[in-house]
Write a structure and sequence with these properties.
The longest helix has 25 residues. The protein has one domain. It has three helices and ten strands. By secondary structure, the protein is of the alpha+beta class. Strand 2 and strand 3 form a beta hairpin. Keywords: Signal.
Length: 240
C-alpha cells in the first residue's frame, strides 16, 4: 500500500512538472522579425533620405525660415503640398506630402507657435527593404518668434505600410505600423537639423510567419544620429 502511495505521488509530480514546463514554453514569445530587422524599419521610418520623420521636420523648418516667416498669416489655416524625391546610391524614395498649419501670434502679431499636421504617401527602396507606406505627423511647434534660434516640436508620428524585407537571400512580406511620441524635438533654424529630443515608440505588424511587437525609446543625439533602446539593447541609427 505504501508503494502505491509513492507511485501515485510520483505520477502527480511528473504531471505537475510537465504542465509547468508547458506553461514556461508558452510564455516564450517568438517574434516574426528579429530585433535587428525591427531596428532597420524604425531607422527608415525616421531617416531623411527615406522620407521619414527627419524629412518632415527639416522641410517645415526650412520652409518656415525661407518663406512662411516672410509673410506670416496669424491665426489663419494654411495648406500646402510638395513632392519629395531622392535618388541616392543606397536609398531611393518618392513621396507626396500635404500640410496644414495655423500660426498663433501675440498681440503685436509676432509669431509664437503653430499647430502643424503633415500626411505623406509613397515608396522607398534600400538594399534590404522595399516599402510602400503612408505617414501622419501632428505637432505643436514653438519658437517661431524671431528671437529664437530653434524650433521645438512636440508631436506624434505614425508610419504604416508594407515592406518587402530581404535577409539571408530570403524575401518576406511585412506589414508594419510604427507609432512614436516625440518630446521637445529641437530643430535648428540655420541648418534645419534635429539637435536633440526624446521619444517612445511601438512597432507592430505581421508576416506569414506570425506577428511581432516591439517597443522602445529614442534619444536624438544631434549630428544626424539617434539612439534606440529596445529590450535593454542600444542601437545607434543614421538619420540621414
Amino acid at each position: 500500500m505504501k508503494k502505491s502511495k509513492i507511485l501515485f505521488a510520483l505520477v502527480i509530480g511528473l504531471a505537475m512538472f510537465s504542465c509547468s514546463d508547458d506553461d514556461d514554453n508558452s510564455m516564450v514569445e517568438t517574434q516574426a522579425i528579429t530585433e535587428e530587422e525591427a531596428v532597420e524599419i524604425v531607422e527608415k521610418s525616421l531617416a531623411e533620405e527615406s522620407a521619414g520623420l527627419e524629412e518632415t521636420t527639416y522641410e517645415y523648418a526650412k520652409t518656415y525660415g525661407e518663406e512662411i516667416s516672410l509673410n506670416v498669416q496669424c491665426n489663419q489655416p494654411v495648406t500646402d503640398s510638395y513632392m519629395y524625391s531622392y535618388n541616392g546610391t543606397l536609398v531611393q524614395a518618392s513621396y507626396d506630402f500635404n500640410w496644414d498649419f495655423t500660426i498663433t501670434c501675440n498681440a503685436l502679431n509676432v509669431p509664437q507657435s503653430a499647430t502643424f499636421n503633415s500626411s505623406g504617401s509613397g515608396t522607398y527602396t534600400t538594399p534590404r527593404i522595399e516599402s510602400d507606406d503612408s505617414s501622419t505627423f501632428m505637432a505643436t511647434v514653438t519658437g517661431l518668434q524671431p528671437t529664437s534660434s530653434v524650433l521645438t516640436y512636440n508631436a506624434t508620428f505614425e508610419r504604416v505600410g508594407t515592406q518587402q524585407l530581404t535577409t539571408n537571400q530570403t524575401t518576406r512580406t511585412v506589414t508594419s505600423d510604427f507609432d512614436a511620441t516625440l518630446v521637445d524635438l529641437v530643430v535648428g533654424k540655420s541648418d534645419y537639423e534635429v539637435d536633440s529630443g526624446t521619444g517612445t515608440f511601438t512597432l507592430t505588424g505581421s508576416t506569414n510567419q506570425g506577428n511581432f511587437s516591439y517597443n522602445g525609446s529614442i534619444v536624438f543625439n544631434g549630428n544626424q544620429t539617434a539612439t534606440l533602446t529596445i529590450n535593454g539593447n542600444q542601437y545607434t541609427i543614421d538619420l540621414n
